[in-house]
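Anyone opening a protein record will find just a pair of labelled lines. A complete record is shown below as an example:
=====
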Amino acid sequence: MFALAVIALAVQSHTALATDNSAVSVFAANARTDTNLQEMLFIAGEALSRANDEMSTKANGKRLYCLPANTKINGERYAAIFESYVKRKAWTQRLGPWGFEGYLLLALEDTFPCEN
């Protein structure tokens, strides 16, 4: 819960996300060089990671995505994963109410699919 509060405060205070008119692709491109956006992606990514770990124990052992063993992801790596996914999907829509966190989850699921 604390991580979500931090994300909300960071999003409100960052000029690149001042409105929902920021295109997903613009956010992704800016995140490559903007350490504040990288930090936001890191916080969101770590919150998603914790939720993903929780899913493994409470959702019949099913995760949303599966990181290889001993994989650590920093803000810069989250930004690269996010940007690569957005570029492949050629997304230009606004961030909107789903925010960057939802797109980050899709990027993580795509980058680290679980073996079924």
About this structure: The mean pLDDT is 78. Residues 2-11+22-111 form one domain. The radius of gyration is 14 Å. The chain has one domain: 2-11+22-111.
